[in-house]
Amino acid sequence: MEVLQVKKLCKVYGNGESAVKALQNVSFSMEKGEFAAVVGESGSGKSTLLNCIGGLDMPTSGNVLLEGTDLFSMKEEQRTLFRRRNIGFIFQSFHLIEELNVEQNMIFPLLLDHRKPDSERVGELLDILGLTDRRHHLPCQLSGGQKQRTAIGRALMTRPMLVLADEPTGNLDSQNSREVMELLLRASRHYQQTVLMITHNMQLSASVDRVLKVRDGKLQDLGGTAS
Amino acid sequence: MRHYLDLVLIQAKVQKKQNRMTKICIFLSVFLIMGLFGMADMQIKSQELQAIQKDGNWHVVFQNLTEEQIAFLEARPEVEASGRYHVMNYGVNEGWQTEGIETVLCGMDETMMDLLPAVQITEGENPFYAKGMAACSDSMRDRLGLKTGSTILITSPSGENYSLTVSGFFRSTSMLTEKDAFALYTNMDTFRAFFKEGSADGQQEAVYVRFVPFCRVQKVLAKICEQIGISQETVGQNAYLLGLKFQSTDSYLVRIYLVVGVLALLVVVAGVLMITGSLNSSVARRTEFFGLMRCLGATPGQVARFVRREALGWCRTAVLAALLAGTVVIWCLCGWLRILSPGIFGKMPVFGISWIGLLSGAVLGTLTVLLSARAPARLASKVQPLTAVSGNAGTTHGVKSSVSVGLLHVETILGFHHAKGSKKNFLLMSGSFAFSVLLFLSFTSLNDFVGRAFTPLRPEAADISITSPDNTCSIAPELAERLSEHPSVRKVYGRSLVPQITAEAGGQEYTICLASYEEHQFQWAKEDLAEGTVDPAKEGTHVLVSRKKELPIEAGDQITIRTEKGTWELPVSGVLDTASFGKEPDAGTVICSEELFRELTGQEGYTVIDLQVRRGTTDAEAGELRALAGEGINFSDKRLRNMETMGAYYAFLLFLYGFLTVILMISAFHIMNSMSMSVSARFSEYQSLYAVGMSRRQLLSMTAAEAFSYLGAGLLAGLPAGFYSHRLLFGMLVASRWGDPWRIPVPEAAVVTFLLLLATGMSLLEPARRIRQMS
Question: Is the pLDDT assigned to residue B305 strictly greater than 90?
Fold first, then answer.
């Protein structure tokens, strides 16, 4: 079942002679539970693609459909509500709220949606992430790996159908990178969540279902593994 | 944590230091509003106390009503107190005398004690329960040696005698001491039996009325007049007291209300601007955080709510602190007033609570914060989620033109460029400077009002005046010397006056009043000098004239004066705005030295000798001065009147300078905050410039150039606006009443320019600290 459909996505910065085509007619789709990696050189358009798919940035043209719902046919407010219920984000530099502890950071998106967190679900996620004994710690008291696991917990808390991760291991050592990958794989395999991850690490892309390469704003589907 | 807005409280606990400036801004704004209304409330209360003491605690007075009309009036539910009152010889010139001294005679109901608190008995008993009894002013007791039970003899203008028994004494009013007269009052029956028959002055019996609190006096009065069938114009009003209760229709008081309204509005706008600036600064500092909230799924509305809740959270502590501080300040002010003028403000509560101040501070303060939070909330809600992930937060200045490096250093040019880079920001920043100037200059117009409204405060104001009864030069100059030797006397200055002298200037004839000044008066005249100089007149070679439409002469002109001694052509060395002494209605005043005066008129004596006495001079000492002056003169003791005016002056002064201080604090904080905000927004750019080789000193120069660009533009806009506002308010408060010409308030403009320069300099301290710590 196709969860994500990207159709002829274009993004142009500036206009006239100074126009930069960051994305050019990018089209692809992803199945439920599929785990894909986006690779490419710096400035190739990977992050722009991810931001457009996540509704953080507006494409110049094209469509992004999540389970058939076109993200950009909605108004800003509506898109935000849709985004917070259906898309989870993981960033390279974690972006945790410094004043909230691990548990509070994880449940924050639910609170924005005026939903009461399910304590069992919180406990289960903390357990999976290995953060049960750190649940009351502030981000400044955590290691880089723990911070990223907290950010993953936050992304998964709302049970989104799509998880977007922008170089989630970029700031981590190899051990922590492996652990993060395992968690993302688990989200994909165990919870049947579709995961799209930007990475520079070719080793990590080896463990994903599919690799997409972006070069000069154009997408190339490399299939099973990166080459 | 159960709600996303709980994050507001969590952040508030952690970010105490970062939020301090915003809290201070809210504190100051609320303090200012609370102060404005609280001090105005206290000011009105103090003025009410004074007005009640001086003129009585009544609202309207009806003349010559029938018993039926009085009964109707007293039965009205709006009437809280009423009493009958009849006075004779109020002008102290009708010939009703006690042992040769003019005596004011009153008959009144007992209820008048409440309506005229100034006549409360201080010794003995009131005279309401027996016929033939009278309460006398304490000056009668002191000068005639009376005691309770003594008999006094009142002589009528026709020479008839009336005998009364003294029941007690009351304190002399300022009017009595000034006119050196006695006063007594009896009950209405005694008055009618003893004096009314002999009264030939046409004075009518009056009924004084005080209405219940919060009654709409003008409306009720119109209704009463209609019902009892009298014209409203025949009803007298205690205009000042009613004015203080916002019940007057007097056009001057209405203008004062308008001025207070305009100033209050300016204060609220200043508060809104300052809090908005501070909240904007807080939002600008946390652009990335709001972007993150948006990334995590917060809608723009939720972000706006977050900012508003934050502002309300700060309100809780800042507003409470401001209300508390405002109350303490008002206590201190009341305490100070009590110490300065216990006679007037002795009844003011030490720990009085201004409910109006508290309520307006709390309500207006919170509303101001909510109003102020609107723009920052909108700003925060417009932060795009991409801001958090792109790493470009704070570097979003839209630069549309490149810098042209000319004669100045590149960092200075960059500073100017930063200032005018964003039109909106430039307008906001320069606008805040301009507004500070406008606010300051507007408030200083009150200074002119205070200076004009309280003339006894002028340096030449006399405490005691000894005047010739027939306004001739009949007082021996030696008296001035004798008086100056008395230990309680600080200054003695006499002058001689000859009115109705014919003068000629520019081919036209005028009637003038010729006045002689001595050294002190010439010195004070310099303050009123509109053109020319004073010294040649002081030396006796020239004369001064007061500027009046009756005498349109300029400095340098010649004036010909014709006296009994001959005709004299004299050069005019200076023109005064007003002659503090020797004013004659419908005639200009020509002032000369004493020697020249003697030469011109042949008169040797003084018409008036004024005395300024030392602080704490007792009534006994004033009595000694009276004895020194001897008989056959008018002795006017103005100390009590001056004290009343001084009291009002101090109250106004506290009000005015208290405000100017807080306005300046607000301006300084606003400017410091705005600069801090501007530097915060550009900090990453500064770091880049530092990285490519710009020194810290150059970075600071760049920041200074930016700050002074705002100041320059602010002064350019603010000074003309401030002058206009000053002129407008001056016109309403001063020119419309005293006719003074408006002048550009240059010293005030210089003060505010200097203070803003200082504040701008101080606003660079925090950026300098951050630049020093930059790595």
Answer: yes
Q: Are B169 and B123 in contact (CB under 8 A)?
A: yes
Q: Which uninterrupted H or E stretch holds B45?
A: helix B16-55
Asked if residues A138 and A98 have their Cβ atoms less than 8 Å apart, the reply is yes
Q: pLDDT: is A205 or A44 the higher one?
A: A44
Please answer whether residues B430 and B632 qualify as being in contact, where contact means their C-beta atoms are separated by less than 8 angstroms: no
ipTM of this predicted structure: 0.88
Percent of chain B with pLDDT over 90: 19
**Rounded to whole angstroms, how far apart are CA atoms B469 and A16?**
97
B298/A112 Cβ within 8 A: yes
Alpha-carbon torsion angle B409, B414, B417, B418, nearest 10? -150
Across the interface, whether the CB atoms of B297 and A99 are under 8 A apart is answered: no
Alpha-carbon distance B324 to B334, whole Å? 15
Q: Mention every residue, 6+ apart, whose C-beta is less than 8 A from residue B288.
A: B387, B388, B393, B394
Residue B488: pLDDT band with limits 50, 70, 90? very high
Token readout for B207 is 């009924």
Q: Which domains does chain A have, with CATH numbers?
A: 33-58+84-223 (3.40.50.300)
pLDDT surpasses 60 at B199: no
pLDDT in tens, B443-471: 888 888 877 766 556 778 888 999 988 88
Q: Comparing C-alpha atoms, which of B143, B146, B136 is closest to residue B171? A: B136
Residue B606: DSSP 8-state: B
Mean pLDDT over the full length of chain B: 83
DSSP state of B733: I
A175-189, B136-150, B247-261, B525-539, range with the lowest pLDDT:
B247-261
Q: By C-alpha distance, which of B364, B187, B359 is closest to B270?
A: B364
What is the structure's pLDDT at B404? 59
In Å, how far are B60, B74, B228, B234 from B70, measured between CA atoms? 13, 6, 9, 15
| List of long-range contacts for B228-231, beta carbons under 8 Å, 24+ apart | B228/B65, B228/B69, B228/B72, B228/B73, B230/B62, B230/B65, B230/B69
Q: Which tokens go with B214?
A: 């919060």
Cα B168 to the chain's mean position, in Å? Answer: 38
Residue A113 has its nearest CB partner, among B7, B297, B386, at: B297
Integer CA distances (angstroms), B270 to A90, B363, B666, B671, in order: 44, 16, 8, 12
Length of chain B: 775
The one-character DSSP state at B475 is B
pLDDT at B540 over 80: yes
* Residue numbers in B near A77 (CB within 8 A): 299-301
Q: Do A99 and B10 touch (CB under 8 A)?
A: yes
- In chain B, which residues have their Cβ closer than 8 Å to the Cβ of A104? 1, 10
pTM: 0.65
Q: What 3-state DSSP class applies to B492?
A: strand
In this predicted structure, the answer to whether residue B415 has a pLDDT above a threshold of 90 is no
Contacts of A47 in chain B (CB under 8 A): 389
pLDDT tens digit string along A116-159? 999 999 999 999 899 999 999 999 999 999 999 999 999 999 99
CA–CA–CA angle B656, B659, B664 (5° rounding)? 125
B14 touches chain A (CB under 8 A): yes
Structure tokens at B712: 């320059």
- Compute the distance between CA of residue B40 and CA of residue B411 in angstroms, rounded to an integer: 48
Are B7 and A99 contacting, i.e. CB atoms less than 8 angstroms apart? yes
A175, two tokens: 């051990």
- Strand partners for B571: B558
Note the pLDDT tens digit of each residue in B333-373. Answer: 778 777 766 666 676 777 777 787 788 888 888 888 888 88
